[in-house]
């Protein structure tokens, strides 16, 4: 049984982030709060940095593929890393 989740963005969040980011944040909070298995997998990554490794995506990701040697070096990431 799924338990209901209540989530409210602070009113200042809309000033700090754009609307697509707020929508994504809400989606991720709901996704991981409603699925115990996914939440457990996510919690195993605590202490690490999760990013999207997509060479064509410099808005949500690092702008590099996971196989690119630069992806292993944070200072070489080209994107905004909005997801990670």
TrEMBL record:
Keywords, comma-separated and alphabetical: Membrane, Transmembrane, Transmembrane helix
Domain of life of the source: Eukaryota
Transmembrane segments: 12-30
One Pfam family hit: NADAR
Keyword Transmembrane helix: yes
Every NADAR domain range: 23-84
Gene3D superfamilies: YbiA-like
InterPro entries for this protein: NADAR, YbiA-like_sf
SUPFAM superfamilies to which the protein is assigned, alphabetical: YbiA-like
Name this polypeptide is given: N-glycosidase R617
Source organism of this protein record: Geodia barretti (Barrett's horny sponge)
Biological classification of the source: Eukaryota, Metazoa, Porifera, Demospongiae, Heteroscleromorpha
């Amino acid at each position: 049984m799924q338990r209901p989740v209540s989530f409210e963005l602070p009113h200042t969040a809309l000033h700090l982030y754009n609307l697509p980011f707020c929508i994504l944040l809400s989606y991720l909070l709901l996704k991981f709060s409603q699925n115990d298995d996914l939440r457990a997998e996510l919690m195993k990554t605590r202490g690490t940095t999760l990013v999207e490794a997509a060479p064509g995506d410099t808005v949500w990701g690092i702008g590099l593929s996971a196989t690119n040697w630069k992806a292993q070096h944070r200072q070489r990431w080209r994107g905004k890393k909005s997801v990670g």
